[in-house]
Each structure stands twice: as C-alpha cells, then as structure tokens.
Amino acid sequence: MPWYLYLACKQLFPSGRFPFFTAISVLGVTLGVAVLIIVTSVMGGFGYEIRRMIVETEGEVDVKVTGYLSDPQDVLAQISATPGVAAATPYVKGVVGVQANSRPAYPLFRGVDVGTIERVANLGRFTNPPSAIANLDDDSVVLSSQLATSLGVHVGDKIEIYSPLLIEKLKNDEVFLPREFRVVGELYIGHQQLDSSTIYGTLRAAQELYGLGRSVHGIYVRLKPDVDEHAVVARLNTTLPRATTQAYSWMESWADFLWVLNLEKSINFFLLLFIVIIAAFSVMSSLLISVVRKTREIGLLGALGARPRDVALCFCAQAFIIGLTGTAIGVGMGFGVLAIRNDLVHGIARLMQRQETLRQFYQFSDLPSHTLTSDLVMTVVASIVISTLAGLIPAWRAARLKPVEALRSE
Amino acid sequence: MSEVVLAARGLRKSYQSGGLRIEVLRGVDIALGAGESVSIRGESGSGKSTLLNLLAGLDTPDGGNLSWGGEPANANRRATFLGIVFQSFYLIPEIDALANVLMAARMVKAPGAVERARAQDLIARVGLAERATHLPAQLSGGERQRVAVARALMNAPKLLLADEPTGNLDEQTGDAVVELLLGLCRETQTALVLVTHNAAYAAKTGRQLFLRDGVLNGSNSVAVSSR
User: Fold this and answer.
1) Interface test with B, best of A304, A321, A405, A407 (most B CBs within 10 A)
2) Farthest-apart Cα atoms in chain B, separation
3) β-strands A108-112, A198-202: how paired?
4) Cβ pair A297:B90 closer than 8 A
5) Scanning every residue of chain B, which has its alpha carbon at the shortest distance from the alpha carbon of A13?
6) Is A175 exposed, middle or buried (0-12, 13-18, 19+ CB in 10 A)?
7) What are the CA-CA distances from residue B109 to residues A305, B103, B113, B122, B152 (Å)?
8) CATH number, domain with residue B23
9) Distance from CA of B85 to the nearest CA of A (A)
10) Is the pLDDT score of A215 beyond 80?
11) Which of A87, A295, B44, B91 is most buried, judged by most C-beta within 10 A?
C-alpha cells in the first residue's frame, strides 16, 4: 500500500478507533446518502406500485378506440394473433352515478368480460372474495373498498346506478329508472384513487348502462413474459385499423403522470444532494483543520522524502475514505430505514391517532419502496465524488507547505 | 581518503527581516567521508539549523554547491541517501513506534518482510523491542528520540543529520541518545553531522566545527570535492 494511503487510513482510524473528527465527517455523508436512498427508493416505489397496479388491472397494452368499437371480435382476433400477445379482453368504462343509503357517489364503472378478464388482469388478487369478478352476473357488481365504506354498503347489499344515458332519455322526456345491482365483493388495490371510486361489473351491464349494444370502448392486452411491449405496440399499430384504433403501452397511457413522478424524483434527488454537498464542506473544513494541526507532520513527511504530490494524495485519500465509509454506512442505514418504513409510518400515525386519515388521503396504504440500480449507482458515485472533491483544497494547501517552514511552525 | 559522502562549497543563505537583509551563512565549506562524524556548534541564531536544512536539501541556498555522494543534491534522493533526527522527534502520533520506523521505508516502496525485519532489528538496537507497539504518546522523550534515530537509519542512509537531538532531553537521556547515534553510525559506517550546543557531545565526534559569523571554523580532514 502506498504510504499516503496507509497514513490516510491511520490518521482517520488510528489503532482501530473512530475519532470524533472522523465520526462527524463520516456521519454527514452517511445522513446525506441515507436520505437520498430513502427518498429515491420511495419515489421509485410509487412508480413501481403504479406500474404493478396498472399492469395487474389493465394489462400492459391498452387498445383505445375513437368513439366505440361496434364489432370487437375481429379486432380481438387480430390482436390475439399478434406475436407477443398472451390474451386480450374488451372493456367499457365510464363515469356513473351511484346511490345507496341516500349517499351519492360518482365512480368509474368498468365493464369487463368475465370470461376473459382474468387472462389479462389479475383482479382476483385484489377482491374479497377472490372469486368475486369470476362470479359476476349482469345484476351484480364489485365495489372498491373505500367506495363501499363511503356508501355504507356491504357484500349482499343493493345499490342503484344512474348512467349518462339517463340524462339523454330525460331530454327526450323518456322515463329511465336507475338500475339496481347487488354487491358481491369488494376490491382493495392499495391505490387511493382506484380504491375510492371504482366499480367492476360485467361488460353487458356496462354496455346496457351506456346504450352501446355490443360495442366496446377498448381492449386490454396482456403480453407474454419478457416481451418488449414497445415492439408489440408498434406491431399492433401497423396491423389494426389506424383510423379507429390506437394501441398504447401502459407507459404511454400514463405518460404524463409518470413524467411528473419522474420529475418529482429528479427534483428531490437534486435538492437532497445538497445534504451531501454540505457534508462535503464539513469534510473540507475538518481536513483544513487537520492540515493546520499537522503542519509539522507534513514537514516531517517532506523531510523523509515525500513528494508534494503524494502529500496531496494523502489528504485526497482521506476525503475519499470518508466519502466511501459514509456512503457504505449510508447505504446500509438507508436500506435499514426502508425495511422498517411501514412500521415507522404507521407508528407515527398511531401516535398522532391519524391512521384513518393516512388510509383516506395517502396514495397507498403502505409506503412503497423500489430501488432502481441506476438510482443507487448515481447516489453512491455522486456522494463519493463530491466527498473526494472536498479534499482537493486541503490537499492543495498541504502540498504547498515547504518542509523547512512546516517544521518551524508553532 | 574515504568516499566523500557530503560536500558543500560556498553555501550562502540570507533572510529578509523587517527591511533588513540578514546574511546567515556567508560561504560555508564542509566535506564528510563515509563513517565520519562531525559536530557543528555555534551560538543561538548563528545559523546551525539553517545550515543543516541546506545540507538536508530541505531549503535552497542563495549560492554555493552541494553534493551527496559525489552527485548534486536532489530532493528525490533524500529518502534513500540521508536520515534526519530533529530536536522535537516529530513522530507520527497515530502509529506505533515500529510503524514510525517503517514509515521511512514506505517513502521508498511498500515494505516487505525484509524491511519489517530491519525495522524490528533497529527498534531492538535502540533498546525498544518491548515497546515497539506503543504509540508515541506512551513513550518518554528519550524513547521517542530513540525511535526517531531508528527511523533515520531505516533506509541505511549514507549520511545522518542530527539537529540538536538532545535539546528536549535531560542530561542522562541525552548522553544515551548521543552514544547511541555515534555507536550506530560507527557500526553502519554512516557519516554523521551533529548540531549541538553541548561541548561534551561535540567532543565525542571525530571533528568539531564552530559556526561563527556565517562561516565554519575548524578542521576539515576530507578535501572538499571539486564538483
């Protein structure tokens, strides 16, 4: 090991101890890295959870129709025959009015083909009972959990649904009564928006509510594992009639939302990077004090034959080791906090008696976390580089000291 | 005549102080052969330490020539050609006595088994085998200076420069350190320049020189190299 690296280690950790100066410098970097990892992972978790929910409830590709598709069977056959496609299912969706126990709500009604929906969307995972979607008939619905709570209904209760068609009928002085549906299950996805305002019913019931006959609004598509969704989307867009249908990957469908999510993550990363930059100033300040405190030692090194370049490297190495140690501990601390994040969040909510508020207004019932390798690498590299750069000024000052003057200093 | 280890001719050095130019050295000539020892005495402020710094290549002279082993002095050769013992020991406080001795070897290359064995041998020869793993703070002044002597001899230098090595020690410890220095230099055929105030210590060296008015007075038994 070169002497400057050896001495840098010994000065930071003499005889295996962790001196106060080293501890403070390392702690600054540790906190910065831990916060960066926690925030980027939680932000990444939001993105990941959203992807999971979209894909598991709508499939990877959404073939949208301009207006409505009057004969979906041909298009369905075309889609199913496209390489990379595992399954496809038609849907009808639109806002409806719901009333139960004199409480109104305006959720999204999703009409799905009971026979094929489970091949595309894994809805059974989110419903209670799990067979609720499979057992749907034209007079039954599955309500999202928060919608059921806000309407005060349970499985077995009845609700009334008013469709926009009712307004059209009223314009023509026709009487159109709301349709009565039986609640056969509850849906709990874990996303505040979906859990608070979604109803699943059969495709036929939705077509009836919207007066669509046999037409549908679109087709959800599930892809085979490890298939490039962009390639399949491109393939679908070349084979399907361009004037009426357009295939979108889940990322394209949610592009604006994902862009905002990504922007938030980037802004958070940039702002939190300042913690590491401030920690780097602390490292620089500590090393500058060290240069002053060890002036005579630096002179001695010169007298022993050390070159100014090596003296500089000794201080740069100290900054690098502080950055490396702080980053390593910070990564551990960040993942440690992430491991108990839900206990922490629920503990704080319990302490403040705000569990219900948390459930109602928070996007997810649990704090999601998903660490992208690219985020981790960026955090680690940025913190080590910034910490090492903090050693440049102390290193430059130490290298400029003339041995004879340094040895004479008081 | 033995091999010339150190040769200085016409070394001059002056300092600017408060608008006044003080000429500290006005043309110092000195030459030293292998295994020789020489003492330099002088009043406080006479320029002894300045001269030693010039001889060690730590400072640049205003004029004159300096050669080590017949070649012009060069800072890159300092680690292997000479060892220095300071009045204030200057041990690195974070590492133990043995590691301080090995530090001189590290300046040249990463120490291997040979260097470690030599460092242990030197520590034993200065009487600190039992205290090799002690930090400088756990050693007395005399012990620290002995570690500094071992460090100065670590790279088997041709020349050892000692700048008042007993200045911070009591008489008894000082005697022991000087005896150690002289003994080791004799044993290893290392040339020694001892800067001291003490006439008794000076008398123990082969030649005694006195620095007065910026020039050295005394006998030079080895001819100054023409280089």
Assistant:
1) A304
2) 55
3) parallel
4) yes
5) B94
6) exposed
7) 12, 10, 12, 18, 16
8) 3.40.50.300
9) 10
10) yes
11) B91
Closest chain B C-alpha to A314 CA, distance in angstroms: 12
| Each residue's pLDDT tens digit, B88-130 | 888 998 899 999 999 999 988 888 899 999 999 888 888 888 8
Give, rounded to a whole angstrom, the gap between the first and last alpha carbons of chain A.
31
Q: Contact B58/A407, CB-based, under 8 Å?
A: yes
Q: How far apart are CA A211 and CA A91, in angstroms?
A: 14
Closest by Cα among A250, A283, A275 to A21: A283
E-assigned strands of A194-292? 198-202, 216-223, 245-249
Euclidean distance between CA atoms A69 and A75, whole angstroms:
9
Residue B77 has pLDDT above 80, yes or no: yes
CB B171 within 8 A of CB B179: no
| A19 to chain B: closest CA residue | B94
Measured distance CA(B190)–CA(A302) in Å, rounded: 22
A407 touching B (Cβ < 8 Å): yes
Say if the Cβ atoms of A407 and B59 lie within 8 Å. Answer: no
Domain tally, chain B: 1
pLDDT tens figures, A15-27: 767 788 888 899 9
Residue carrying the six token digits 């030649």? B207
The answer to whether A290 faces chain B, any CB pair under 8 Å, is: no
Flag whether B31 is in a domain. yes
Contact A209, A200 (CB under 8 A): no
What residues of chain A lie within 8 A of the CB of B93, using their CB? 14
Give residue A339's pLDDT. Answer: 93
From chain B, the residues in CB contact with A3 under 8 A are 103, 106-107
| Matching residue, tokens 């520590």 | B123
The strand pair at B37-42 and B191-195 is best described as parallel
CB B107 to CB A296 under 8 A?
no
State the first-to-last Cα distance of chain B, in angstroms, to the nearest integer.
17
- Lowest mean pLDDT, pick from A275-289, A325-339, B173-187: B173-187
- Complex confidence, ipTM: 0.85
Given CB atoms, is A1 within the 8 Å cutoff of chain B? yes
Contact by Cβ (8 Å): B6, B68: yes
Select the residue of B75, B78, B110 nearest A1 (Cβ to Cβ). Answer: B110
Which residues have CB under 8 Å from A109's CB, separation 6+?
A92, A93, A94, A95, A96, A161, A163, A199, A201, A206, A209
Q: Give me the domain span that covers residue B99.
A: 4-218
Residue B223: inside a domain, yes or no?
no
Residue B227 inside a domain? The answer is: no
Residue A193 CB coordination number (10 Å): 13
Residues in chain A: 410
DSSP state for residue A364 in the 8-state scheme: B
Q: Quote the CA–CA distance of B29 and B11 in Å, as a whole number.
A: 7
Residue A311 touches chain B, beta carbons under 8 Å: no
**Which chain A residues have a beta carbon less than 8 Å from that of B84?**
303-304
Domain assignment present for residue B111? The answer is yes
Inter-chain CB proximity B108 and A2 less than 8 Å: no
In one letter, which amino acid is B183?
G
User: Looking at residue A336, what is its pLDDT?
Assistant: 95
Residue owning tokens 């109803």: A199
The chain-wide mean pLDDT, for chain A, equals 87
Structure tokens that stand for A167 in this block: 């307004």
CB A291 within 8 A of CB A358: no
A296 to chain B, any CB pair closer than 8 A? The answer is: yes
